[in-house]
């Protein structure tokens, strides 16, 4: 999938939001809500395949041959049930003082070390006034949000490890994953804690959209059942190692809420790359160019573009480094023959980034991500029929992608 799925079909696999206003009183600022429909009970639903799970590639792994039951018994205790208390302002035309609505978002997370650090999705805890985590032994403790990165939809929680039997999950590498490899998801779909489902890696290098509008790249697609409440839980390989963080699902349309066999996990290597920044509590710093582009390849030959490779600029974000440097976006709309896909023609085609030849829009984004804000880079581009070189100082990525 070269472009993010449409917002009507792609849904966050999490949080299961529990809120129901009680009464319709006019008392100033008095609004309450039902916070928890799970009545404090811990439910477990487990789907287990007893045959050993072996990789389809024949690659040797440390624990190859583990059954789903083995993996569940070893690592399910390290998967936690995350509850976030969210308080929102409500507009009541009959209440001049306004009011609040209290609700609870629930999702999943998993322990990554003995110091009480827990990885989850940012959208599970976004806007939370308080966060608690429940362990397999039903012990519930308050968690602190240490760091978060909306652009990858990841967050790091921490709990006081004293008195807790923490079971960290081993982190693998998403670079080693291949299509067809077995996968296991453990999480809390619909509040059913520590549910296990199995599947395979259906595709690699997918692209999804973070809640703040930026693209998350190199995402793992799986057919292991993922549903609301699974967000933040681990996607595990046949050796028991975490290869991704379950984040979004394809629902098949606005009328469907549950699993249709298409789930998406943020690769664990993406999390490992920013883990130190998350632990420090500092905002994750990302370089920013400020263009949206599409790949120039053979599929665009009929458009007779002035370059045969590169990234064709579709949009330049206002007040971005690209805007300041004078990059030009396309303005002439064209429809690709035999499709309903449209492109904007007439914009710059970026062919090289700091000397590296650009072969796709994804590569351009990855090269930008490899830099820090303030770095100066050279862009080689084709504008109409002329070649130009621009020097640009990369900026700091904004918290949300501009729209309009």
What is the overall shape? globular
Question: Describe the biggest sheet?
Answer: 6 strands, antiparallel, barrel
Count of β-strands? 24
Structural class: mainly beta
Catalogue the unreliable spans.
1-8, 17-52, 54-63
Would you kindly provide a written description of the structure presented here, covering whatever features stand out?
- The protein has 2 domains: about 1-40 and about 65-285, Beta Barrel (Thrombin, subunit H), CATH 2.40.10; about 285-395, Roll (Pdz3 Domain).
- The protein is built from 5 helices and 24 strands.
- The protein has a 6-stranded antiparallel barrel with strand order 9-10-11-14-13-12. Strands 3-4-5-8-7-6 form a 6-stranded antiparallel β-barrel.
- The chain has helices at about 70-75, 120-125, 270-280, 320-325, 360-370, and strands at about 10, 15-20, 80-90, 100-110, 115-120, 130-135, 140-150, 155-160, 180-185, 195-210, 215-220, 235, 240-250, 265, 285-290, 290-295, 310-315, 330-335, 340-345, 350-355, 355, 375-385, 385-395, 395.
- A hairpin with a 7-residue loop joins strand 9 (about 180-185) and strand 10 (about 195-210).
- It has about 400 residues and is mainly beta.
- Mean pLDDT is about 80; it is low at about 1-10, about 15-50 and about 55-65.
- Keywords: Hydrolase, Protease, Signal.
- One of its GO terms (biological process) is proteolysis.
- This is PDZ domain-containing protein.
- One of its GO terms (molecular function) is serine-type endopeptidase activity.
- It comes from Baekduia soli.
